[in-house]
Amino acid sequence: MGESVRTEQAIRTRRLRKEYDKVVALSALDLEVPAGEICGLIGPNGAGKSTLLKILATVIRPDFGNAQVAGFDVNNDPLPVRRRVGFMPDFFALYENVTAEDFLAYFALAYGVAQEKIKPRVTELLQMVNLRDKRTELISGLSRGMRQRLVFAKTLVHDPQVLLLDEPLSGLDPRARMDMREALRGLQNSGKTIIVSSHILAELSDFCRYVVILEKGVLRASGAVDEILARLHGALQVRVEIIGAREKAVEVISRTPGVSIQPGDGAIINFSLAAERAKLAEINAALVSGGVGVVSLEEKRGDIEDIYHQISGHEVQ
Amino acid sequence: MELRFAMRLPEAWRLLRISWKPGRMAGIGLLAISVCLLSVGYIVFSAYLTRDFTLPSLAKLLCVIMLIYQGLLWDVILPAQVSNSLAQEFAVGTWQFQQTTPQPVRRLLLGKLLGAGGDVYLAAGIGLPFLALGVIAGPYPLLNVLGVCLTIIALSALVSSVTLYFAAMAGGRKQGGAVTTVVVLVVLLWMLVGLADYAKTRPGSFAALHPLFIMLAMINPKWASFAFVKFFGFAFPIVPFAVVFYAACAWWIFTATEAQLRRSMTIPMSRTPLFAAFIALEFCLIGFSHAAAGKPWYAAWIPIYISLNLLPLYYVLLNHSLNLSELRPWLYRLRGRKISWPELFRGDAPGVFTVAVLLAIFALGAAAFNLRLHGQDILNWATRSPQLYRLNSAPLIVILLFLPSVVIVLRDALFFQAGQLLFKRGREIAFAAYLILFGALPGLLMVRRFENPVLDLSPLTALLSSVVIRDWKDYQGLYINYLAVNLALLVLLAAINYRLLRKAQQNLPPELVK
Predict the structure, then answer these.
(1) CA distance A217 to B223
(2) Which chain B residues touch A28 with a CB distance below 8 Å?
């Protein structure tokens, strides 16, 4: 339990390919995800997200190529991979006629958790997913959201190093979503690598620093969110809110080399700055000394949604 | 204690936790007691009809009914529950959770075998006092009854393994309905009775079917002659024989199920060809028993040669034809893409390739063996018995027998290969078609005709053969026809496979065919 990841890359795939009859789910996928990251896996339906997660969880085999999870090959060493991975599928069925407590205890046994640790671990996890008062209830009596939380707890039962979560937030009420996000942050702080696939990009933006974009089985982009944004924009994106004449403000800002004003009107001026961040202070000073009232001046931090829109051009939820 | 058991067999722990709940146990217990009491009622009623109220008669009937009760529980209900516990995992979708745990498949299956019968253990336990009553007051010796019980349990292990295997093979596909099940059971029963009858004259493992009559022997003295089983010339007491044989078969099928499930759980597994070893041993033993009976040497060697040279190949054929994985790496390779050899053979090599390689190895081995053993005869090429048509010439018979065998194995390899390419999602269809055609295609059917086993006619050979078999001489013409028909089939199947392969290649994604 809790063995350390063997490499700096928690996930590494090379030329990974999977076909279902004539549909190519993944095509020659080369991917790396550093250990300790929360990685958002995004893409439209049929992009290959679930297939990728299933291959990494050793549920299905790739047709070609190989994938390593925590340094172990999914084709040749599936059992060591399973000991280090917690997989939460998007669709799942549960043993309806067992209690929540027994469900977790069963998987703790199946994963080989030490005998004396099983009970405290199960109690801790039920507490974590707010199901402690439901521990003796049959699963058939649990709501969808409760089942989702129970499966999340099952995913953590053997304290895996890598978590593969396929749409973990779907089916949860707002409060449970917040709790889940907090839990994921906590897990990341404890050094776990987490891959989360989701359609809800705004929610991924809250806690993912790393992103992988798939489309029709092809990798469109991957890397740290900031790095991708910098690559996409090549400059700082700045937003200024002013009081007073817009023309004057635009004229002052334009004096700074590397500034490119974006079209618009009103009190908000958006521009990009191909220079170091320190120039922002100079622009602010110039605006104030030029008699322009500055309400705010801030660097726009792009998010996953921006990246996805720019790269794929697709609308997502 | 409970946790220690659970650590070893989590699946058994889970299943027993479900079945051993107070309410459920009370229900099952009540049902079991009712059935036992109803049996007692039936016994009293039948005694009333026959006016025979003597204690031994009543107890005898009670003993028989309770043994049937135990037999139904262990050999019908338990296998159904074991099979259902696996089939449900596929059908409902919980299997994907099992797939992600690192617990060994063997342990998972053992857990199902031992844990799925929680209800049965309880009901069987409730029936035991009634059985004990029947034994104490009845005429049957305790040892006989214990023997029957042991046979029932050993048979239960075998039937449970078989049902588990079928559940594993079926995966998530829908099973047949009740009507299909009844038809299959009737056909199976009919086959078993027929085979058991046939087994009386057969020296091989068919003899193991005799113990199926052991319960009948308890009821009807007519079956008492089955108290001993003749197995390759040796007489074995029926109970130890049945228990060992059923347990061995159960283990063999259990390993087959394990291999099947490991594949579905994406865990590579190279499986010892136990099936081939078993059949080879069977044929060798038949050969030795022929030799021991003083039959001509070739009568002894024919089955041995068949087993050594061919049956491992049949194993490979079946193994590949029933494998559910895809053949894409091989198709890519055929299109010139560089795929490493380990990757090609890690999953499923097309059966026909493996068969061809193994066939070549066996042919070389057999040639070397024959040259060493019969070199003298080859040089002195002599016919010792004209009426046997040179068949008793040692090197010739080996070559003559080996040639059609090679043709047959390649023919069947191509048949299964076509099935593999045609039925991507249902190789069992190809296997079923093969079984149906087995009687029609010219094949190796060893039967007793005249005094010695020979290659017998199959319906298709008979249809195409212009030879009427009157005596041994006519087998020359038959042999030629037999070879010709199989060669023709071989060519036809090769052409079909070529077409299918070309079609499959054309469907490959172009970006990978570089």
Answers:
(1) 66
(2) 511
Most confident of A127-131, A218-222, B302-306: A127-131
Asked if residue A65 lies in contact with residue A15, where contact means CB atoms within 8 angstroms, the answer is yes
Nearest-by-CA chain A residue for B4? A115
Contact (Cβ atoms closer than 8 angstroms) between residue A17 and residue A27: yes
Chain B touched by A218 (CB under 8 Å): no
B139 lies in the same domain as B176: yes
CATH for the A9-225 domain, from 3.30.70.1320, 3.30.70.330, 3.40.50.300, 3.40.120.10: 3.40.50.300
Query: Of B95, B102, B256, nearest to A74 (Cα)?
Result: B102
Say whether residue B103 is in contact with chain A using an 8 A CB cutoff. yes
Distance CA B25, CA B27 (A): 5
CATH architecture of A234-304: 2-Layer Sandwich (3.30)
Model confidence pLDDT, tens digit, residues A170-186: 878 888 888 888 888 88
Same domain as B457, residue B382: yes
Dump pLDDT digits (tens) for B195-249.
Answer: 656 655 565 666 666 556 555 555 555 545 556 777 766 777 777 887 888 888 8
Q: What letter would DSSP give residue B173? A: S
Whether residues B6 and A109 touch (CB distance < 8 A) is answered with: yes
For B474, which DSSP code?
A: G
Please tell me the distance from the alpha carbon of residue B223 to that of residue B228, in angstroms, as a whole number. Answer: 11
Question: Which residues of chain A neighbour B94 with C-beta distances below 8 Å?
Answer: 92-95
Looking at beta carbons, which pairs linking B460-469 to residues 24 or more positions away fall under 8 Å? B460/B485, B461/B485
Task: Write the single-letter amino acid at A106.
Answer: Y
Q: Is the pLDDT of residue B378 over 50?
A: no
Residue B203 covered by a domain = yes
What DSSP designation does B448 have?
E
Cα–Cα distance, B46 to B50 (Å, whole number): 6
CB A282 within 8 A of CB A275: no
pLDDT tens for B160-207 read: 988 888 788 776 665 555 566 566 666 666 666 666 566 555 656 666
Q: State the number of CA atoms in the 13 A half-sphere of A56 facing the CB.
A: 35
Tokens of B425: 């999602």
Q: From residue B308, how far is each of B100, B289, B291 by CA, in Å?
A: 40, 16, 17
Say what the pTM is: 0.72
Find the domain containing B331 and state its range: 272-512
Burial level of B259, CB count in 10 A (0-12/13-18/19+)? buried
Give the orientation angle of helix B394-422 with respect to helix B311-321, to 10 degrees: 0
Taking CB atoms and an 8 Å cutoff, what residues of chain A touch B510? none
Give me the pLDDT at residue B128, please. Answer: 95
Q: Which residues of chain B are within 8 Å of residue A83 when distances are taken between CB atoms?
A: 102
Q: Tell me if residue B230 falls in helix, strand or coil.
A: strand
Contacts of B444 (CB under 8 A, 6+ apart): B306, B310, B405, B408, B455
Contact A93 B100 (CB under 8 A): no
DSSP state letters, B320-345: HHT--S--HHHHHHHTT----HHHHH
B473 in contact with chain A, both atoms CB, cutoff 8 A: no
On whether the CB atoms of residues A105 and A121 are closer than 8 A, the answer is no
